[in-house]
Amino acid sequence: MSVACPHRLILASASPRRRELLASLGLQFSVVTAAVQEHEAEDADPRALVRHNATIKADGVARLHPDAMVLGADTTVCVDGIVLNKPSDLADARRMLRCLSGRAHSVFTCLALRCLAVGLGEDHIVESRVFFRVLDEAAIDRYLSRANPLDKAGGYGIQEHGELIVDRWEGSWTNIMGLPMEETKAVLTRLKVLPSTGC
User: What is the pTM of this model?
Assistant: First the structure.
């Protein structure tokens, strides 16, 4: 779908990482968060979970700002069918890091685009793979002493001393951070929110 660029772009997320990543495109936008109850069940389908959470954020803000292009997003981590959202405290973060130690897991992000004025509603899900080092308690202590895990799915941020815990990854680095910039740039360009290269 190709639409005329609306006057405003709104990021429906309180995440400082998403704000920084979106700003790297050189776009002017505002941040509006929706008061919604996100799903966080560990036995949920991770794709369905991020789609639900991203869409309720985008839909909630779009209803308040029907003439704006609204971008909602949600990210989660999944290992062996277990969904790891944001830890409740440091002990929970430690539990998550133990669970991820020496294993591969998936990071899912859903992008939800809404513009009620032109009837736009699109959802895009991106998956990346992350392979953790084997972590003993000393390695977990070292990571937790340097990074804040509490506002990050899976209890870690790859951009925040990730070299201490991550062996390698596959797919989009920025998806693991919370906003897949390759997909975001492509979608916003197609929707004429972001100018095409050379225009």
Answer: 0.92
Tokens standing for 154? 């899976």
Return the structure tokens found at 119: 């009837």
pLDDT in tens, 36-94: 888 888 999 999 999 999 999 999 999 999 999 999 999 999 999 999 999 999 999 99
Nearest to 38 by CA among 28, 23, 53, 20: 53
Tokens of 103: 């294993």
Closest CA to 85 of 20, 38, 132: 38
- Residue written as token pair 């197609």: 190
**What token pair was written down for 50?**
């991020």
> Which amino acid is present at 33?
T
Within its chain, how far is the Cα of 102 from the centroid?
A: 23
Q: Could you give the residue numbers annotated as active site?
A: 74
For 158, other C-beta atoms within 10 Å of its C-beta total: 21
Count CA within 13 A, CB hemisphere, residue 18: 26
pLDDT at 3 over 80: no
Query: What CATH fold (topology level) applies to the domain 9-190?
Result: Maf protein (3.90.950)
Residue 40: per-residue pLDDT: 85
